[in-house]
Amino acid sequence: MKEMKSLHENNTYELMELPKVLVASMNLEIEQLDVKTAFLHGDLEEEIYMEQPEGFTIKGKEYLVCQLKKSLYGLKQALRQWYKKFDSFMVEHGYDRTAFDHCVFVKKFSDGEFIILLLYVDDMLIVGRDIGKIDKLKKELSKSFEMKDWGLQIRFLAKPVSSPLGSHLKLSSKQSPSSEKEKEEMRNVPYASAVGSLMYAMATVKWILGYLRGGTVSWQSRLQKCVALSTKEVEYIAITEASKELLWMKKFLQELGLQQERYLLYCDSQSAIHLSKNPTFHSRSKHIDVRYHWIRDALEMKLFFLEKIHIDENGSDMMTKPIPIEKLQF
Hints:
Elements: H1 2-9, H2 22-25, E1 29-35, E2 49-50, E3 66-67, H3 78-92, E4 96-97, E5 104-108, E6 114-120, E7 123-128, H4 131-144, E8 147-152, H5 180-187, H6 191-204, E9 210-212, E10 215-217, H7 231-255, E11 264-267, H8 270-277, H9 282-285, H10 294-300, E12 305-308
Parallel strand pairs: 11-12
Antiparallel strand pairs: 1-7, 1-8, 2-3, 4-5, 5-6, 6-7, 9-10
């Protein structure tokens, strides 16, 4: 309760309507379910023995041990065995496991309707146009597993705000409280509690979709695995990494029956774009790992297209740097 109070006092989020994305544009219903004690459903393939649980020892049989028939929480096999159990259930009911994401199952019906089920550990989303077919699947799931039906998925989206830290400001350990009085004052500030709540939410919320100009965004921000000698090389390597994600999403959506005329990858570095499209820059790029030059072959085969985006229109900057709210208002 203390954490939630801090979130409300800091206006961490605001309820708003979901932007028009795939689910909205195709007029799809989306339901959320949770499998209770999911790991206990897995069937074990090995012989595993354990001592009788403390406090539940059967009188007169204290010398006996338990031979496990099902998975238990804490077993290294538990997650895998649960997935295999669920996978066999979906296949038996006519659902196809997608080749590009084994946690997504699809079933197409003769009347043109379809159902997509997304599994994340013990949570799942069911998407489709026919609510009757969705309800039928939910009933079948309830026969085999103990389910908790959350109904229509609850959506929380953040309200755009300016980044709290200006780009000209620098943080230092010297700014930390030094005296006992300053430390005591800091303990009364709910900042740490709010950050802890956000970290908890980040670790427990299973489906996180980013929305940018009405479309879903797959993004990440992490250290590159090699040392670059210039910002151009940094952008060049980032383009290669982004293109791999783009091609995966392209094939995944095509497997779901969704086609698109052109697949665009935007970059705000003109130098990196020229380096990607022009293999004659050998003297400037020969020290870069060969695997990053794969982007040139991909562009030549027209698997996707690479274009320049102006810095004022690059909304993805909000993922990596402090920016004013005006830049987020398109």
